[in-house]
Write a sequence for this structure.
């Protein structure tokens, strides 16, 4: 294994789904069920059994819209406000209308949600307006249940092949070029439609520990979806709206306020007092977190030590078994005990991820990108705040729409020269006798991201970042060296990470205002609704560099009152129609 | 062999995979079980069911785990049989897989065992039948409320609660007086489906339970029954020694629109427990009794943002 | 520039007495999202899984899915 082989195979399929984590499997299942004759291929650079952000499970749904607890209108309003108004509501609204059906379907797969003693969904209130949190105390079975469904539907699964570039022709998608992560053999997949569910760009910033893989997101989510969409010519929206999350310091895993919150735990400053004003997870909330960390009242802590023993035991059971089970080991190693002390928190490195933020490959309410036949769903697509349930639901939308799309088209012709050029690009590091290994290229890129791109954003620093990225790119293109196929995968990831870093810098430079709290805090600029109440669209320009344009926010479906629009921006509660938080 | 020769995951022949179950090495048999499970093909069930009687405990455990991927009577029967294993790890795995069954028909294999003499087996069978909601389980579950093991009784209450049948109220009422805290708590929560006076009377009585977690469950569930007596009873625990109980009572009174409790909740704004103060402000807003403004106004600029937000929101409601 | 051999401690530990890689088991290798585990033949001819690349997200499927409880995931030293 890992020895570099020379090979090229081509296969055809109707629908190629890239990414077997959350959105991808659901897209594949829905497409196959809608069109059982279609040849659906699901490809992953890891193994579909345990790939993606929810590799080990998930401890709850953060954004379930369940009749009787929240309405699609309420939810759409909440998400619009949390995004400072920059939101095409159609996709959010459709999600809100259909996600309950997806919950029931997941339930039928054997994915387990918390139910009360009468067998009804036990929905918890965490946010101010609606009630959206549905815990999953046995959420460690998610991937197994999904995998079972894929096998039952006889979806063709290809593991350990990494897609590196999309193929296009005739103005639409034509397939993808992939490379095996253990042999470096090439696979060209011709497809009538391609659905991307490649997850977040989670290896963009460097975590405080300095460990390359100690990231908040699953470290295998290194941003291939963004890079492939970019090189194929698709539009990417609002990339300057970074993801930054609160987390347990050093462990770098989520603090899981959605688990601890309904049970009485909260985020506190060094005095043990609550300080967060903002109602919904947003850049404003992260700005408050950052201010507290930097402002002399920090550090920030997860406070549970005021709770009863029985409550803490239950929190431990959920937090330490599901989603990131090593968290129990971490606290044990540190000698920290929820009963005795507060647990130090911090903020994450930056990344792209619509799961908790709003940037990504631009899609509409059918998960269509700007390239016909190309779809995107989950953390990499720009439907804001969609979390795991959004990945499932938008993945379903993509699969359903793609099933229709392929019924009416044949394979698009593409330029064979693209395949040759990509093989040459990918294999270059294997052709050298020595040079810079991919981990050093990656470390340097990510260290520069921290030094120069991490908010608060400063123009001159971002310009420096752009210069330094050019230098790293030059080293990468002319000097990167790998010894086996595994290192080649890391080399390809390093190249993706560098692409994402350059897009992050370019997008942040373009929007000359501050918006979304800490996510796009440009210290030299105030918020500017007159000029910047719009999406920013980034595409690959003629010169091979990022090009930008503004795109209007589509008219709202659910009206937002004038005084509510920037409720989070002003850090205050809206005057009307809200309900008190529990 | 190169990677492209085996591009797709296999859909192997079940019989071929099952040959591995006859390998002399337990490790190889474990592998055969894993491969059979990965097919997700119901045709694999009889073979995995056979492996659950293997000589090696590791193979049996793997088989019990593997059956999580399947459903139906045959799966359930194999899992129930594994509950008689002498290795605790096999029993644990089988018990867990039993709770993953979804098809109500699977319950057919569990129902005959709902009076099992073995505690562990009985508990697992009750836990397994719960989500299948088989009405035939009601009788055995009620009978199991007399069982000596509290864990068995807790599972029995779960079965009854999921069936949501008014005729089982007397049984739940008895369970609400059980000697075990968890059983009492579970029984009280299970009463939430009923709007009857009996259910409410049981919940009201439980507000005097010596254990705080029981009182908490009763205070929370009373918001669902909402009959004549519950408001007075909930007001009675606003001075409970546990803030957790008071919090749930305040929340329930808010949900029940119990305006007569507002002047008692008002002074609780002064209690130095952030979670409770936040809840009181929210409830006062829901009740919107103008006279409570005096208790809220002094906290309109509270240091705690959650308290402050709820206070301001409540004051708006009072003014409206 | 030539490469150096720099030592690093790895977080995933395999108990090779329990490991059944000899029987064709590759469960831990298969499930790792970062593909950092491999099978090696030891001096005595027996095969075992081991962590070849120090690129671990400490996510646990290798430990959770191992049929013989041979795998332990520790936290990488840099963050523990």
């Amino acid at each position: 294994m890992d020895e570099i082989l020379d090979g090229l195979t081509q296969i055809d399929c109707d629908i190629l789904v890239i990414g077997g984590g959350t959105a991808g499997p659901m897209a594949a299942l829905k497409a196959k069920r809608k069109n059982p004759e279609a040849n659906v291929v699901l490809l992953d650079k890891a193994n579909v059994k345990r790939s993606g952000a929810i590799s080990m499970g998930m401890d709850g749904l953060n954004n379930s819209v369940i009749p009787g607890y929240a309405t699609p209108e309420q939810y759409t309003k909440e998400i619009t406000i949390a995004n400072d108004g920059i939101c095409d509501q159609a996709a959010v609204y459709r999600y809100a209308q259909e996600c309950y059906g997806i919950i029931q379907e997941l339930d039928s797969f054997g994915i387990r949600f918390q139910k009360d003693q009468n067998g009804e969904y036990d929905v918890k209130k965490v946010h101010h307006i609606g009630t959206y949190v549905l815990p999953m105390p046995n959420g460690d079975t998610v991937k197994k249940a999904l995998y079972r469904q894929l096998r039952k539907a006889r979806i063709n699964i290809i593991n350990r092949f990494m897609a590196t570039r999309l193929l296009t022709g005739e103005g639409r998608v034509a397939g993808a070029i992939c490379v095996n992560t253990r042999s470096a053999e090439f696979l060209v997949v011709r497809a009538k439609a391609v659905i991307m569910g490649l997850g977040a760009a989670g290896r963009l910033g460097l975590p405080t520990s300095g460990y390359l893989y100690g990231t908040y997101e699953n470290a295998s989510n290194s941003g291939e979806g963004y890079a492939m969409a970019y090189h194929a010519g698709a539009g990417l929206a609002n990339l300057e709206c970074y993801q930054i999350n609160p987390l347990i310091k050093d462990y770098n895993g989520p603090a899981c306020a959605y688990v601890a919150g309904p049970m009485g735990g909260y985020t506190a400053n060094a005095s043990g007092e609550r300080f967060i004003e903002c109602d919904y997870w947003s850049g404003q909330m992260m700005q408050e977190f950052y201010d507290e960390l930097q402002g002399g009242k920090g550090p920030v802590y997860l406070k549970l030590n005021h709770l009863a023993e029985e409550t803490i035991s239950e929190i431990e059971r959920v937090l330490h078994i599901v989603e990131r089970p090593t968290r129990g080991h971490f606290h044990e190693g540190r000698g920290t005990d929820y009963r005795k002390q507060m647990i130090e928190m911090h903020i994450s490195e930056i990344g792209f991820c619509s799961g908790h933020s709003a940037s990504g490959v631009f899609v509409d309410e059918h998960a269509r990108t700007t390239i016909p036949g190309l779809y995107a769903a989950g953390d990499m697509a720009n439907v804001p705040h969609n979390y795991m349930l959004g990945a499932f639901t938008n993945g379903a939308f993509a699969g359903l729409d793609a099933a229709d799309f392929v019924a009416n088209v044949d394979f698009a012709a593409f330029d064979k020269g693209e395949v040759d050029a990509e093989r040459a690009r990918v294999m270059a590091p294997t052709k050298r006798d020595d040079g810079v290994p991919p981990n050093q290229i990656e470390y340097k890129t990510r260290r520069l991201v921290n030094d120069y791109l991490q908010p608060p954003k400063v123009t001159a620093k971002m310009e420096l970042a752009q210069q330094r990225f050019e230098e790293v790119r030059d080293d990468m293109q002319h000097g990167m060296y790998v010894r086996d196929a595994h290192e080649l995968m890391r080399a390809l990831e390093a190249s993706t990470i560098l692409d994402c870093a350059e897009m992050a810098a370019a997008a942040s430079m373009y929007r000359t205002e501050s918006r979304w709290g800490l996510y796009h805090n440009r210290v030299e600029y105030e918020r500017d609704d007159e000029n910047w109440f719009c999406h920013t669209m980034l595409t690959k320009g003629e010169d091979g560099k990022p090009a930008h344009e503004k795109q209007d926010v589509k008219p709202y479906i659910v009206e937002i009152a004038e005084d509510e629009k920037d409720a989070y921006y002003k850090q205050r509660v809206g005057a009307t129609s809200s309900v008190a938080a529990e | 062999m190169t990677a492209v020769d085996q591009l797709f995951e296999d859909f192997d022949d079940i019989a071929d995979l099952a040959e591995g179950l006859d390998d002399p090495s337990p490790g190889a048999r474990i592998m055969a079980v894993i491969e059979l499970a990965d097919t997700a093909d119901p045709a694999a069930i009889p073979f995995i069911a056979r492996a659950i009687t293997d000589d090696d405990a590791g193979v049996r455990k793997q088989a019990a785990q593997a059956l999580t991927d399947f459903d139906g009577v045959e799966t359930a029967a194999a899992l129930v049989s594994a509950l008689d294993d002498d290795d605790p790890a096999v029993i644990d795995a089988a018990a867990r897989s039993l709770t993953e069954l979804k098809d109500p028909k699977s319950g057919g294999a569990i129902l005959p065992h709902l009076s099992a003499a073995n505690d562990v087996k009985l508990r697992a069978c009750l836990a397994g039948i719960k989500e299948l909601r088989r009405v035939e389980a009601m009788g055995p579950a009620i009978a199991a409320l007399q069982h000596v093991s509290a864990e068995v009784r807790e599972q029995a209450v779960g079965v009854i609660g999921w069936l949501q049948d008014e005729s089982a109220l007397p049984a739940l009422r008895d369970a609400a007086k059980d000697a075990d805290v968890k059983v009492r708590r579970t029984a009280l929560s299970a009463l939430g489906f009923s709007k009857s006076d009996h259910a409410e009377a049981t919940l009201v009585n439980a507000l005097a339970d010596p254990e705080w977690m029981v009182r908490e469950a009763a205070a929370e569930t009373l918001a669902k029954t909402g009959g004549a007596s519950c408001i007075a009873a909930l007001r009675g625990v606003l001075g409970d020694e546990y803030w957790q109980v008071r919090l749930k009572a305040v929340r329930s009174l808010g949900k029940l629109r119990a305006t007569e409790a507002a002047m008692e909740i008002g002074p609780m704004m002064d209690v130095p427990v952030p979670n409770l103060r936040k809840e009181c402000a929210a409830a006062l807003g829901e009740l919107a009794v103008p006279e409570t403004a005096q208790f809220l106004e002094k906290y309109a600029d509270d240091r705690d943002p959650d308290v402050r937000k709820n206070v301001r929101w409540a004051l708006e409601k009072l003014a409206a | 520039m030539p490469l150096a051999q720099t030592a690093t401690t790895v977080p995933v530990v395999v108990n090779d007495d329990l490991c059944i890689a000899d029987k064709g088991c590759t469960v831990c290798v298969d499930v790792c999202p970062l593909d950092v585990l491999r099978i090696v033949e030891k001096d005595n001819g027996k095969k075992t899984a081991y962590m070849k690349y120090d690129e671990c997200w400490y996510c646990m499927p290798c430990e959770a899915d191992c049929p013989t409880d041979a795998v332990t995931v520790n936290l990488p030293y840099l963050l523990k």
